[in-house]
Structure formats: structure tokens, C-alpha cells
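ok so for the tutorial part 2 we go from a plain amino acid sequence to predicted C-alpha cells. step 1 is just haveing the sequence, like this:
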Amino acid sequence: MTDDRKKTKTVTVGGKLLGGGHDILIQSMLNTSSHDIDACVKQAKALEQAGCEIVRVTIPDREAVAVIPQLKEAVSIPLVADIHFDYRLAIESAYAGIDKIRINPGNIGDEDRVRQVAEVCREKKIPIRIGVNSGSLEKHILEKYQKPTADALCESALYHVSLLNRWDFDDIVVSIKSSNVDTMVRAYRKMTELCDYPLHLGVTEAGTERMGLIKSSIGIGSLLLDGIGDTIRVSLTADPVREIEAAKDILKAVGLSKGGVEIISCPTCGRTRVDLISLAHQVEDALRSCDKRLTVAVMGCAVNGPGEAREADIGVACGDGCGLLFKKGTIIKKVSESEILGALLQEIDAM
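step 2 — the prediction. this is what the C-alpha cells look like for a chain of 351 residues:
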């Protein structure tokens, strides 16, 4: 992971600092009905417990605004209102205590409506995320580029930025998502050269958990390795809690983990003499809630054991009915196959 994070402005979202080189914040969105307050509160609490740092809720009508104070009371993480078409919902959400508003300025009406939203958000010190995606491009931009290209997405985003800037509003976060990974990556790379606003990364409509995770890992991970991105949302057709787990794993994979154990394990081969697949899953499950910053190796044999995984903080190399525990490549103990899991966890607990 490069240390050269792209320099962006800092905005404050409900007390959390977004951008400016601060920690990359993990987001998700409630998929419960905004009119079912109990369900929204329950899901928001589950997301917060899983490690979500910003949560978004859709506000489709005036009745849904009532969920905002209930969620604010239930969880301590910042709350974002997702607004489309009706600018009055953005204003009402601001007065209801929302921490951030997500709008597409191009679909909420004339410039005076944009002005009203910008003025209220400036008064309340509420940042606005401009959310552009490949399915929401303005007609004139789509006609110019013929399809939702990276250039088209960037032009649309900058147009929306100009609408807010016109009313002296600069507390902005930008997202330019596409369901096409290549287009998404190209768009964000271009955008980082055109503005210094914090960037919210994501592959939109990424798909079910399996394919969505693959696409999100490639798109979000590539940009993070470039030093691009200030907050991420992994969009999955799944329980939103799974989005948080996936986001954490992506951050671990690119060296931006905020804590927790990273498991490395070999793919197994003909030399493997234990049920390594099962063991690796047991280790992963046992350490899921461990907040120690450790790399733990679960290796199948001496060939790729202490030597290949010597950089791991601790690990095990499994032999025929036994396992060699090692720390930083140095063997510390030999145990029987039945003792491997317990001995490994005991050593980790003592670290």
C-alpha cells in the first residue's frame, strides 16, 4: 500500500473527519423500510456493532423523515439521508438532525431549489455528497459522450459541484460510481486530478455477494492502492452487515486495516496431511472479533510453513498428525493435530 494518499479537503460528518488523509471510513445503507422505525433501528445497531462508521437511510417521503431522530438516538455513528427528486426532503432532514445529505443536484429541480438546500446545509454545517452514477447522467452529457464513460461521469460531477459552489457551498463529498469496474476506476482516477474533494468509492449495482465482492475488491482495492479514496461502500445484494465485513477485508488486503487479525493460509496440495480447509475456517471464525493487529498463518506443510510465512506474527505449519507453531518464522512448539487450534489460540491470547 502506498503512503502517498491523495490530498483532499476534510469534511466533518457527525463528528467524524472524512478526507484530508484521515482514516478511510466504512459505510453501508439500511435496506429496511424507512417507515418501519423498529426495523431500521435494529439494523442500524447491527451495522454499528459490525464496524460500520457511517450509515445511510433513504428518505423517500415526508413520513420517512421521522426515522431520523429515532436512528440518531439509537446509534452513535453519523447518519446520511439519501434524497432524490424532492429538495424539501433534504431541508426537512437537515432540520431533523441528519449528519450528511446525499443528493444528485441535477434531479432536484431548478437552481433556486439547489440554493435552498445549500443554504440550509451551510447553516447547519451538514456536508453534501454528490452522488453521480452511470444511470443518472444528464441528457446533454449522455448525448455528448454517447454512453456513461469516465469523462461523462466526471463532467456530470463537476457540473453538480458548480451548482453548489454557486451558492457558496464547498462542504462536498463526491462519488462517481458505475457498475462497470473499468469505467469506475478510470472515473475516480480522472476525478482526483480535477478536484480535491473527498471521494466516496464504490462499484454500484455490483451484484450478489460472490460477484459483488469480486468487483468491489478489484475496483475499490485498485483505487486504494493508488492512494485514492476517503470512504468506501461495498454494495452487495445481501445483508448490509456483509458489506461491512467485506469492506474490512478489502482494507486489510491493501494494508489499510484499522485493527483485527489477517489470516493467511495456503491453498493446500498433495503434501497436506490434515484437514487444513476446516482448520483455517475455525481459526478465522475464532478470531473474527479479535482486535489485535496480527497476521496469523495456517499452512499445510513444512515446505510453505515457517519459511514462506516467516513474516506472520504467529502461525502453524501442519505435518502428518501434528503441527509446528511458529512466531516470525521461528518454531516455538510442536503439538498434536487435535491440539493445533487450542494451542494456536492460546498463544494468540497471550500476545
